[in-house]
Amino acid sequence: MAVLTLYHAAPSRSSIVRWMLEELGEPYDIHLLSLVKGEQQAPDYLAINPMGKVPALRHGDVIVTESAAICTYLADEFPAAKLNAPVGDPRRGPYLRWLFFAAGCIEPATVDHAYPHKEKPRRGALGYGDYDSVMDVTAKAVEAGPYLLGDQFTAADVIVGSIVRWGLQFKLMPDRQEFTDYVGRLEERPALQRTVALDAELAAAS
């Protein structure tokens, strides 16, 4: 049995972590959950993730939830894969920034844009400020490429890239050249191609 176990549903946000695991190159097990059947709300799974959602990762006796946290953890625990900017590297700050910016700004701004509030909140009341600013900042970050930290692909690209791919797929983000070019580069990665194929098999079988 692999030391790493991903609690997974396809399709869902847990595909982000599956992509990270494929990039990592370490053996891992899948514990498949049916969201349709509500298995994520079963008591045994709520003991793992009280939020009743995927993904969750078990690494030995350690449980980690939240996609960005899981990817950050994996990159640090398995440094040989070179998917992080290690402590002491001056790029550690920008690396962490994009991991947290993705979860704290890009995704909530995109979701709020898709499901607008009846009454528009004050800009200062939102952690991300406003949708257009988030899109501009993200576009500028991915424009130079090939990745957020230049030539090195990291866990930050897994998180930011997954959200941008999702946003473009469902037309929740503007079809800007910076975004489409960035996603195009990501989709050339064999690990992402494997993830898409593996999850398509799971979805077809469910």
Question: Can you tag this structure with a few keywords?
Answer:
alpha+beta; Glutaredoxin; 8 helices; 206 residues; four-stranded mixed sheet; 4 strands
Structural commentary:
The chain has 206 residues and is α+β, with helices and mostly antiparallel strands. The chain has 2 domains: 4-82 and 191-205, Glutaredoxin; 92-190, Up-down Bundle (Glutathione S-transferase Yfyf (Class Pi), Chain A, domain 2). Helices cover 50% and strands 9% of the residues. It contains 8 helices and 4 strands, in the order βαβαββαααααα. Strands 2-1-3-4 form a 4-stranded mixed beta sheet, with helices on one face. Helix 1 (14-24) links the parallel strand 1 and strand 2 (28-32). Helix 4 crosses helix 5 (131-143). The mean pLDDT is 95.
Summarize the structure.
With 206 residues, the chain is an alpha+beta fold.
pLDDT under 50 segments (min length 5)? none
Examine the coordinates and then state which fold CATH places here, giving the name of the CATH topology of the largest domain.
Answer: Glutathione S-transferase Yfyf (Class Pi), Chain A, domain 2
Helix and strand pattern: EHEHEEHHHHHH
**Mean pLDDT score, rounded?**
95
Q: Which sheet architecture does the biggest sheet show?
A: 4 strands, mixed
From the helix content, strand content and strand pairing, which structural class follows? alpha+beta
Q: Could you tell me how far the N terminus lies from the C terminus, measured between alpha carbons in angstroms?
A: 24 Å
Please state the CA-atom Rg, rounded to the nearest Å: 17 Å
- Please, how many helices? 8
